[in-house]
Amino acid sequence: MNKNLECQVAGFQSSDLKLKGFKVHEITGPSYPSLFYGRRDFYKIVLATGHFNICYGDQTFDINDTFLFFGNPHIAYSNEHLSPQQNGYACVFTESFIGSRERTDSLLNTSIFRFDGNPIVPLNREQADFISSLFQRMQTVYSGEYGKKAEMLRSCIDLIIHEVLRIQPQNELKQKNAATRMTYLFMELLEKQFPIETAADPLRLRSAQDFAESLAVHVNYLNRSVKEITGRPISVHIAERIASEAKALLKHTNWSVADIAYALGFEYPSYFNNYFKRITNTTPNAFRKSKEKV
User: Fold this and answer.
1) Which one-letter DSSP state was computed for residue 33?
2) What is the band of 211 on the pLDDT scale with cuts at 50, 70, 90?
3) Which residue of 38, 44, 255, 282 shows the fewest CB atoms closer than 10 Å?
4) Which CATH architecture fits 178-292?
5) Which CATH fold would you assign to the domain 14-167?
6) Over the stretch 119-150, which tens digit does the pLDDT of each residue have?
7) What residues form DSSP beta bridges with 71?
8) Which pLDDT tens digit goes with each residue over 165-185?
9) What are the residue boundaries of the structural domains of the chain, listed by start?
10) How many beta carbons lie within 10 A of that of residue 92, not counting itself?
11) Alpha-carbon gap, residue 53 to 250, rounded angstroms
């Protein structure tokens, strides 16, 4: 997987993004070439109308409507244009552009950007008009001479995200007590291990004990906190996340099953085969073959 693949579209040059950490552009007109599956170096928010097939991690979305798409640089995705025309807007921004806020309070930790969230949000006409006005405002501010344009652009991003959370309430972790705080830290630490880019740098934290040691707490306390907030033990969260990454690697890379096993921290491929089958009810090879036929 190539983490540096970028979308070369009208109005967007990677040099602009690297210079300022932000870019907004209109995407109205003939459909651009489809995006390759891979990770990027930036977050992306797209407002579009048209027919698209979007692969995001191990999920696939077929949508023919007006919608918002939220792309996370840590999650591989691709976008196949199925209609000849499209219209809308897109903005891309780096983590450093938003990085002035404390990470725990950042809106980028909302579930629309997380691997287990839904990055596609359908919009009705009224909602689309409002979001469109925010993109238009960003275009005006971006090309203008206002001295605090970065701050205003961040505010527009905040407004888009808050509007989506109002339209489609998310099950956010509310940091009201110690158990919730500990659960948040666990989930963040789990997600930081992904994506897996190479078998030479395998997964390090794979058990509840591993996470407890990294967070400097007793494993029983950590597991009790996570189960209290999420209703599921740590082992289930870890297993589901490893299985999700395994599916993505099987579907979108030509790595051997053995290489994927080692990359995910399994000592032997047979251990990975048994693990994957226990969680998904199919073997890695069978899963890969089923996706090749689609």
Assistant:
1) P
2) very high
3) 282
4) Orthogonal Bundle (1.10)
5) Jelly Rolls (2.60.120)
6) 899 999 999 999 999 999 999 999 988 888 98
7) 44
8) 888 764 444 444 678 878 888
9) 14-167, 178-292
10) 25
11) 19
